[in-house]
Structure formats: structure tokens, C-alpha cells
TrEMBL record:
Gene3D superfamilies: DD-peptidase/beta-lactamase superfamily
Entry keyword set: Hydrolase, Signal
Protein name (record): Class A beta-lactamase-related serine hydrolase
A GO molecular-function annotation: hydrolase activity
Organism name: Sphingomonas populi
Signal peptide location: 1-21
Length: 444
């Protein structure tokens, strides 16, 4: 999470200087898909940080997108999308696995339907998925013994990870075994693990949601924040409420209107050359896990994963964050009303529930109950705290190291793209915050 690093005016000064310096920047949704590298950067400390990451072999490449108001986005990049010397340079249109940064996009789709009255925030999920009418809750984490849930799971609880659902990256014991045996694994990493998971994973989003409903919850709905498959189940709610497949809803109602032309559940073969290689760190060594040109993301997933399924570019994801920064409209296109955008990025946790911290491997933001809450699909800073994000900042990250934040009050935003596991191998959040503070200090 990026702390409050300067006033919007200071950041605007940086971005204006970039434009004046000839920085290669998009000026509209129809800007060229590629542009020549800038000779100078309006964010020299951030550029130096990115260069140092590549030079010290922490990663083959990295891209950042930073914006204030409606000024042109500044893109900062270094390195390549693969270790090979002949690999394309990393840039605004390179493709990255954003994993859990899919969740806020799914949440936006839900908020659009809430605004239209097709979904209500505190409506039972069972109104859309009848199998959720008779949920049960684990009596102990040591067994699958269960009791009837005291209350139904609601839409709010799916969006805020308070439904009591599990997740293979955080669930332990018998319930984890049950999730794996039932194929409740809505993510893709590499071809080898994917082939194994497809043996048990449901083939459709409807079957997935119905199977989830057969497994016990880890806690009573609305009583505990626990990272979960809630946004994956939300995908099924969206397709029932909208009357169209979940992935088609995202494409026709969000990606196409926003000009997000490089966002995919399945990367077309023609675009494989833009897809970064996914790496995994084992000790002090980094090895390729999923090569871009032969990536498992070139194959259709079992179903569209609303919690971790998207591949996108820094340019495209900046379109999404820019929309949220501007209260639901961008480039003459409005997807949600300002009040709906504000609701999405507000603390939506049920009464008495607090957000403690992002679990390892989630890519999420750190914090505590006094400083951070949770909105629809992302964390929300409740106060201004030195060293952390400004009040009202909405943010999250992905399992392969990507991060984003939107500060709607100060009208600035940022996205950083990398692709390696584990996501916390290097302290990108704090490093980028420090570099941006140094860059902005010179413009105050």
C-alpha cells in the first residue's frame, strides 16, 4: 500500500513535467499500443529503483503506471518480459498475470448490478444460488463435523471475505483436503499443476458454486474476515443476476466500454509475444514457471475465475483504476454513479468485524483494525497514518507481485506489474512508496 505521498497538486506537477519533457504518454483511449522509450523520466527515483531491480536480477522486468487527475498517465519500466536477452522490453502493453487484482474488477461488476437493482448488498446469496440455502459451519478446524449456519451468506459478505468461505492458500486441515478433492481451485499457475487440478475441478461456474455450497464454512457468515473464494462465487451471482455468462458481462459491460483491449481470461495466441514469463523463487534462485510463449494462460480456463483469472497490461489496469479515481466515469463513459463508486471503496465490513492483515501469498495490503477496513474486493484505509496510505485509499495486489492503489480523495493512482512467486520476495510496496516520495519532494 502506498502512503499519502504528496498533495494531488504535487503529483500533478510531476506528470505535467513528464509531458513537457517528452515522456511517451497515452493521451486518449486510442493512443498507440506502443511508444518509443523516454530519454528522461519525470519520476527519476522510481525509474532508478526499477532499473536497480533488473540490474540486481531481482526480476527480469517491471512496469509502473502512475496518474493524477485526468493528466496523461506516466509509465515507468525497466528490463524485459523474460530473462532471455532477445525477449521484448517490458512496457505499458506487456501482459501480466494479475491474479487477485481480478477481484476488484469482479467487485465492480457486482456494484454495477447493485446500482441497477438486480442485486442488493445485503441480499442472501441463495436467492441466486439455491444450493447456498442450507450452509453449515465447521465445529472445529480439526474435522469436517459441522452445524447449521446461524444466518445466510449475503452479497456483502462475498465481496468482503466475511462469508466464512475457505481458500486453498489459507485454509488448513481437513477442510483444505476437502477443497482440493472437490476441485475448489479457481486459479492457474502452470501447465503441470493445471493438468492435475483439472481432474477434479468443476467444468462450469455453476457447478463450481454448487459444489462450494456442499462444504462447511470456516466461520459463521458475517463474523470474521478471512481471505476466500468469495469473489469467485460472486462470478456466478453476476451471471445469474445479469442473465449472461460472467466473462461476457465483464467484456461487454466493462472491458469494451473502457477500452481495455488487452485484458483476457484466455490470452489469444496472437498476443503470446506480449505475455511475461511467470517465475518462481526457490531459495536464492529464480526459475521460469510458465513461459509466456507457451503459457497455460493461452488455454481457456475451466471457467472464468472472478478471484484470480485475469491477464492484463499496465495500460489497461490503469484504465480501471482511473475510472474508480474519477468516481465511475472515464473518457465520456460512465459505468457507475459517483455514489456507487464511493460505496465500493468504503468500509463495507459487517458490524463488529475487522480487517487484520493480508495473508501470505495473497498479494494484499497490510494493516490493522484501527487503520484499514475492507470494501468491495479491496482494502480501504480508514485514517491517514505516516508510512501508510492516505485515508480513503482503495487497494489490493496479486499473488505474483502486482499491486495497485486508488486515492479518490486526492485523485491519484498507481499500478505496478511484475510476475514472480512468492509475491513478497521483494518489498515492492515500501520501495515504490519511498521512491515516489523522493520524486515528489523535488516538486513541492
Amino acid at each position: 500500500m502506498i502512503r499519502q505521498i504528496a498533495t494531488g497538486a504535487a503529483l500533478a506537477a510531476v506528470l505535467v513535467s513528464g509531458a513537457l519533457a517528452g515522456q511517451a504518454l497515452p493521451v486518449s483511449p486510442s493512443a498507440p499500443a506502443s511508444a518509443p522509450a523516454a530519454k528522461t523520466s519525470p519520476l527519476p527515483d522510481t525509474q532508478a529503483l526499477f532499473d536497480s531491480y533488473v540490474q540486481s536480477d531481482k526480476m527480469p522486468g517491471i512496469v509502473g503506471a502512475f496518474g493524477a487527475g485526468d493528466l496523461p498517465t506516466v509509465f515507468v519500466s525497466a528490463g524485459r518480459i523474460d530473462d532471455a536477452a532477445t525477449a521484448p522490453a517490458a512496457g505499458p502493453d506487456s501482459l501480466w498475470r494479475v491474479y487477485s487484482m481480478t477481484k476488484p474488477i469482479t467487485a465492480l461488476a457486482a456494484m454495477m448490478l447493485i446500482e441497477q437493482g438486480k442485486i442488493k448488498l445485503d441480499q442472501p446469496v441463495s436467492d441466486f444460488i439455491p444450493a447456498f440455502k442450507t450452509m453449515r459451519v465447521q465445529i472445529s478446524p480439526d474435522s469436517l463435523a459441522s452445524k447449521p449456519a446461524a444466518s445466510p451468506i449475503t452479497i456483502r459478505e462475498l465481496l468482503t471475505h466475511t462469508a466464512g468461505l475457505g481458500y486453498t492458500i489459507v485454509t488448513r486441515g481437513p477442510l483444505l483436503d476437502a477443497y482440493e478433492k472437490a476441485g475448489i481451485t479457481p486459479f492457474t499457475a502452470d501447465a503441470k499443476s493445471e493438468a492435475k487440478m483439472r481432474l477434479t475441478r468443476p467444468k462450469t461456474l455453476e457447478d463450481f458454486a454448487n459444489k462450494v455450497a456442499t462444504l462447511p464454512l470456516i466461520a459463521e457468515p458475517g463474523t470474521k474476515w478471512s481471505y476466500s473464494i468469495g469473489l469467485d462465487v460472486m462470478g456466478r451471482v453476476i451471471e445469474v443476476a445479469s442473465g449472461m455468462p460472467f466473462d461476457r458481462f465483464l467484456q461487454t459491460r466493462i472491458f469494451t466500454p473502457l477500452g481495455m483491449t488487452s485484458t483476457y481470461f484466455t490470452v489469444p495466441a496472437s498476443e503470446a509475444k506480449r505475455l511475461a514469463t511467470g517465475y518462481v523463487w526457490i531459495g536464492d534462485g529464480r526459475i521460469p514457471l510458465d513461459r509466456g510463449e507457451s503459457s497455460v494462460f493461452l488455454q481457456p480456463p475451466s471457467f472464468p475465475y472472478g478471484g484470480a483469472g485475469l491477464v492484463t497490461s499496465a495500460r489497461d489496469y490503469d484504465r480501471f483504476t482511473h475510472l474508480l479515481q474519477d468516481g465511475g466515469a472515464l473518457g465520456g463513459v460512465r459505468l457507475i454513479k459517483p455514489e456507487t463508486a464511493a460505496l465500493m471503496m468504503s468500509n463495507l465490513l459487517p458490524p463488529g468485524v475487522t480487517y487484520r492483515d493480508a495473508p501470505a501469498g495473497s498479494g494484499g495490503t497490510s494493516g490493522g483494525p484501527a487503520t484499514v477496513g475492507f470494501g468491495a474486493g479491496g482494502s480501504v484505509n480508514l485514517v491517514d497514518v505516516p508510512g501508510h496510505a492516505g485515508k480513503g485509499t482503495y487497494a489490493w495486489g496479486g499473488a505474483a507481485g502486482t499491486i495497485f492503489w486508488v486515492d479518490p480523495a486526492r485523485h491519484f493512482r498507481g499500478t505496478v506489474m511484475v510476475n514472480y512467486l512468492p509475491n513478497d520476495k521483494w518489498p515492492i510496496r515500501s520501495d515504490v512508496a519511498k521512491a515516489l516520495r523522493a520524486d515528489l519532494a523535488r516538486y513541492r
